[in-house]
């Protein structure tokens, strides 16, 4: 069976950076499922699999195509129930949905304000033009102005992770002693920043940084397969 993960990358195709793709990469590793990564640029996405998706990740599992990271995680648990679960039951799915909402509305929103120009700079020329033309109308200002206005976000970012920090005082991962898809959701966001930007967002001694380092080492160190910027 051919299993393919389409992953967003910039000018360097060996450095996939999408936070949502990284959720799936760790999920596949969690399940022990082999796959091939096919890197694609922003402007190449409409052409993959005959226009099957407007965004990545997109997973081809034999004859099946599945898009959206959460839908892919659900699919993997349902299709491969004999392998380690990503959710550990309905309670784990509910927890992951909450973490997904928190990550999207708090973590991603803060991160993008100070890494958006780094993302732009890692792209090829055609993708840079696309990225600027599609993102600047959303922000209502230039990418440079977004980053300038978001300088303070770097200093306050750690405080936004306090819910996770408090949890880590009681257990090693969101789900307890071992990782689950909820961990991969937040890991994906921090991995995104690690790959595209040299900005320091987590300090030594922070339990969240310790957790992130543990996540980088999971499943044979798949998270470290791409070096930091």
UniProtKB/TrEMBL annotation:
Give the matching SUPFAM superfamilies.
Answer: GST C-terminal domain-like, Thioredoxin-like
* UniProt protein name: Beta-aryl ether-cleaving protein
An example GO BP is: glutathione metabolic process
InterPro entries from the UniProt entry = Glutathione-S-Trfase_C-like, Glutathione-S-Trfase_C_sf, Glutathione_S-Trfase, Glutathione_S-Trfase_N, GST_UstS-like_C, Thioredoxin-like_sf
Gene3D superfamilies in UniProt = 1.20.1050.10, Glutaredoxin
**GST C-terminal domain location, by residue?**
105-229
Q: Name one GO molecular function term.
A: glutathione transferase activity
Q: Name the Pfam families for this protein.
A: GST_C_7, GST_N_3
| Superkingdom per UniProt | Bacteria
Task: Describe the location of the GST N-terminal domain by residue ranges.
Answer: 8-84
Quote the CDD domains the UniProt record gives.
Answer: GST_C_etherase_LigE, GST_N_etherase_LigE
Source organism per UniProt: Pararhizobium antarcticum
Q: Which PROSITE patterns match?
A: GST_CTER, GST_NTER
Q: What is the lineage of its organism?
A: Bacteria, Pseudomonadati, Pseudomonadota, Alphaproteobacteria, Hyphomicrobiales
């Amino acid at each position: 069976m051919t299993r393919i993960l389409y992953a967003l990358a910039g000018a360097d195709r060996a450095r996939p950076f999408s936070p949502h793709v990284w959720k799936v990469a760790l999920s596949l590793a969690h399940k022990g499922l082999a796959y091939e990564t096919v890197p694609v640029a922003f402007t190449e996405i409409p052409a993959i699999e005959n226009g099957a998706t407007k965004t990545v990740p997109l997973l081809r599992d034999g004859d099946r195509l599945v898009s959206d990271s959460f839908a892919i995680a659900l699919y993997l648990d349902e299709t491969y129930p004999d392998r380690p679960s990503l959710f550990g039951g309905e309670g784990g799915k509910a927890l992951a949905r909450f973490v997904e909402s928190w990550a999207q509305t708090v973590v991603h929103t803060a991160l993008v304000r100070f890494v958006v120009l780094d993302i732009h700079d890692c792209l090829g020329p055609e993708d840079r033009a696309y990225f600027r033309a599609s993102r600047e109308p959303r922000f209502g200002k230039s990418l440079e102005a977004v980053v300038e206005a978001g300088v303070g976000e770097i200093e306050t970012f750690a405080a936004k992770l306090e819910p996770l920090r408090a949890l880590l005082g009681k257990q090693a991962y969101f789900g307890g002693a071992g990782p689950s898809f909820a961990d991969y959701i937040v890991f994906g966001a921090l991995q995104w920043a690690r790959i595209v930007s040299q900005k320091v967002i987590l300090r030594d001694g922070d339990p969240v940084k310790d957790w992130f380092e543990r996540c980088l080492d999971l499943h044979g160190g798949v998270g470290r397969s791409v070096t930091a910027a």
